[in-house]
Amino acid sequence: MCFSSHCECPGFRVERFLQPCLLLCLAIRSSHGYELMERLKHFLLEDESPDPGLVYRTLRKMEEDGWVSSEWVTEASGPAKRIYTLTGEGKTVLRLWAEHVRRQVLRLQRFLEEYEKLQREGEHHG
């Protein structure tokens, strides 16, 4: 997002958005790690990609917190896969995240409205 190495704006951090996206993916359906990484791409921009290590660390932390559960499943072909499932507590956390994101979107919309207003005024005065 920043155009120089001295940029002061923190920008958007994919890491912070990972947890609610994983919770939402698991609310839609239980999945294994690789499938979740593929599904996460839906929430990211073209130049962003989920870090596999971060995804698995986040899943482990969410399991420790009781938001997801997992079990090893062996299919007819291929290695066993750990399937993650959203728990009741995870659904509650997802609802809280959705409210947080909704409020953040409103803040960002207000910011952009004011910025665009300033830009339009600058065109008339400049």
Automatic annotation (TrEMBL):
Gene3D superfamilies: Winged helix-like DNA-binding domain superfamily/Winged helix DNA-binding domain. Pfam families: PadR. Residues 23-95 form the Transcription regulator PadR N-terminal domain. InterPro entries: Metal_resp_DNA-bind_regulator, Tscrpt_reg_PadR_N, WH-like_DNA-bd_sf, WH_DNA-bd_sf. This is PadR family transcriptional regulator.
